[in-house]
Design goal:
Radius of gyration: 17 Å
Order of helices and strands: EHEHEHEHEHEEEHHE
Number of strands: 9
Oligomer: single chain
Structural class: alpha/beta
Helix content: 40-55%
Strand content: 15-25%
Distance between the termini: 30 Å
Length: 266
């Protein structure tokens, strides 16, 4: 893991990152904190969130852990209430929480489809709505969503995931159009093939059957699609998160920035 360099680039920002208990979300939290932000590390797994928040506090940052279920509006509201009570007014939201299950096209189940669309689509919508309700009276704010190369370019074994991430992108663009008049920018990051625990994680569907989210074998297979010749790491993605959270991106909205080593070339 690359150690982020401390700065004061985000010293005035109080930021929520969902899905920050590990992987890309944890890298976002580390880099945002190193740039001076106060960070609410939000995750369904409170223990994982507290571990990352404690790490940030040990490094001298202001950070708290918050448990959240992004598809429950009461939980989302409570997340914002807690973050603002302990850190101050939130000005940036990262919708990073997401679910990915790898499944051949003809074997996708209704439960898998529903899970990914609920978390990746509805979760992004609910959190963005709550952020907007708070940002509008304050004259603005920033929302950054984690999309994917799959938002633009689907693959056979990730059809449900790709469709759900296309929905995330659609929510991003719709929110940008709806909220720009209020000084709220809404942008997205499109990670490529990133080496995280997801690639070896085993999920269970509603019927109890094991479904491998991905595998080392498929990770290696996808490397051939990457123009830069290697899979990415969470630390490859996080500097773009800092940029989108900062004033440097104030005149950007409705955009998807691909950080994928050259998988999708547009």
């Amino acid at each position: 893991m690359t150690t982020p360099t401390a700065s004061d680039r985000l010293a005035t920002k109080n930021i929520i990152v969902t899905g920050a208990g590990g992987g890309i979300g944890a890298a976002f939290a580390r880099h945002l904190a190193a740039a001076g932000a106060a960070v609410a590390v939000a995750d369904l797994d409170l223990a994982a969130a507290e571990s990352i928040a404690a790490e940030l506090r040990d490094a001298g940052a202001r950070a708290i852990a918050v448990q959240v279920d992004v598809v429950d509006t009461d939980s989302v509201r409570a997340m914002f209430d807690t973050a603002e009570a302990e850190l101050g007014e939130v000005s940036v939201l990262f919708n990073n929480a997401g679910v990915c299950i790898r499944q051949p096209f003809l074997e996708i189940t209704e439960a898998q489809w529903k899970l990914m669309h609920t978390v990746n689509g509805k979760g992004t919508l609910f959190c963005t709505q709550e952020a907007a309700r708070r940002f509008i009276p304050r004259g603005g704010g920033k929302v950054i969503n984690t999309c994917s190369t799959s938002s633009r370019q689907a693959s056979a074994d990730f059809a449900a995931y790709a469709a759900s991430k296309a929905a995330t992108l659609s929510v991003t663009q719709s929110a940008a159009r709806a909220l720009g008049q209020h000084g709220i920018t809404v942008n997205a990051i499109g990670p490529g093939i990133i080496d995280t625990d997801l690639w070896s994680k085993v999920e269970r569907d509603d019927a109890g059957a094991e479904v491998v989210a991905a595998s080392e074998r498929s990770l290696n297979a996808y490397e051939s699609q990457i123009l830069l010749g290697r899979t990415g790491t969470p630390d490859d993605i996080a500097p773009t998160a800092v940029f989108l959270a900062s004033a440097d991106s104030d005149y950007m909205t409705g955009q998807l920035l691909m950080v994928d080593g050259g998988i999708v070339v547009q």
